[in-house]
Amino acid sequence: MTTPRRACIIGHPVKHSRSPMIHGFWLKGFGLEGSYEREDVTPDALEAFLRGLAARGYVGGNVTIPHKEAAFGTVDRRTARAEALGAVNTVWFEDGLLWGDNTDVTGFLANLDDRAPGWDHGLDKAVVLGAGGAAAAIVAGIKERGAKRIFVANRTAEKTEALIRRFGSVVEAAAWPPSAATFAGAGLLVNTTSLGMDGKPGLDIDLAGLPPQAVVTDAVYVPLETELLANAAARGLRTVDGLGMLLHQAVPGFERWFGRRPVVTPELRALVEADIGR
Ligand code: NAP
After folding, report:
1. Does ligand 1 have an atom closer than 6 angstroms to the CB of 189?
2. What digits encode the pLDDT tens for the residues 207-224?
3. How far is the centre of ligand 1, averaged over its atoms, from the C-alpha of 65 (Å)?
4. Does the CB atom of residue 63 touch ligand 1 within 6 A?
5. What is the CA 45 to chain-centroid distance, rounded?
6. Rounded to whole angstroms, how far apart are CA atoms 216 and 241?
C-alpha cells in the first residue's frame, strides 16, 4: 500500500484560500486518497517551514501572499518562468531538491485562451493597470504571446520602472490614472490592481478610448463581475473574469504532486463561483 500524498497551501493568512476546494475537487474526481491542506506560516518561519516540508510529510505545495518572493529565494532550483518573475507560487521535490515554479503565467494565458479565443492574434498593444506581483506574471504572459507594446499604468511609478527593467523595452510607462490616449489602439486591457475587489475602492475609469474589438479582463475575482468588467460589457467589449486564472494556475501543481493532469471543468467553476457568492 502506498502512503497518500499530501500537499498544502502556505500563506499568511491562508484561511480564505480557495485552493483546498480546487485540489479537493480534483482529488475526489480522480478517486485519489491524497490531501491538500492549509498551512498558516508567518514570514519569519517560512524558510524553516519550506526546508522541513518533506519531513512534515508533504510532496509540495502552493505558496501565496506574502511569501512568493521569499520562496523564490529559498528553493534549490527554479523554472525559467520563476526566474523571469522573481517569485515562486508552486513547489515540489525532484531528486531530493526543492523546485519552484510560477504558474500564474499559465493561469492567465489559459484563462484567456479558454474564454476569449484568438485574443492574442495580431496583438499589437496591451494595457496593464497595476505593477505588483500579478502584473509581473501577466506582463510575462502577454510578452510571451508576442505583444509589441505593453503599457503599464500604476499609482507608484517606481514599480512600473522595475517591470521595465525586468522585461525590457516592450514595457512602457503610462500615466496613472490611465487616459483615453493610453487605451487608443489597445487589443487587451488587464486590471491587476486590487481596486474593484470586495472591500476595496472601485476602479472607475473611462473606457471610451478602447477599440470595439478589445478584450477586457480582471485579475480580481471577488466579485466575479467587477465594476471594470461591467463597464466594459456595457460598451459591448469582450470580457473575461479572473476566476479562470485562479483555476488554471492550479493545474501544473496538482499534476506534479499527484501525477494526474486535471482539467478545469464547468463543474469546478460552478463550485468555486458558489463559494464566492456566499
Ligand atoms: P500587489 O503586488 O500588492 O499589487 C497591488 C497593486 O494594486 C499595485 O499595483 C498597487 O499599486 C495597486 N493598488 C492597490 N491599491 C491601490 C489604490 N488605492 N489605487 C491605485 N492602485 C492601487 O498584489 P498582487 O499580488 O499583484 O494582486 C493584485 C490583485 O490581483 C489582487 O486583487 C489579487 O487578489 C489578484 N490576483 C488574482 C489572481 C488570480 O488568479 N485571478 C492571481 C494573483 C493576484 P501601488 O504599486 O501604487 O501600490
Report:
1. no
2. 999 999 999 999 999 999
3. 11
4. no
5. 24
6. 9
Regarding the beta carbon of 130 and ligand 1, being less than 6 Å apart is answered yes
Asked if 83 and 100 count as a contact pair (C-beta separation under 8 A), the reply is no
Alpha carbons 23 and 253: distance in angstroms, whole number: 9
How confident is the model over 177-183, as a mean pLDDT?
A: 93
What integer pLDDT is reported at residue 204 of this predicted model? 86
Given a contact cutoff of 8 angstroms between Cβ atoms, the answer to whether 89 and 246 are in contact is: no
Vertex 104 angle, CA 222 and 110, to 5°: 85
Q: Is the pLDDT of residue 1 over 90?
A: no
Distance of CA 114 to the CA centre of its chain: 15
Buried b (16+ CB within 10 A) or exposed e, 72-104: bebbeebbebbebbbbbbbbbbeeeebbbbbbb
**63-89: per-residue pLDDT in tens?**
999 999 999 999 999 999 999 999 999
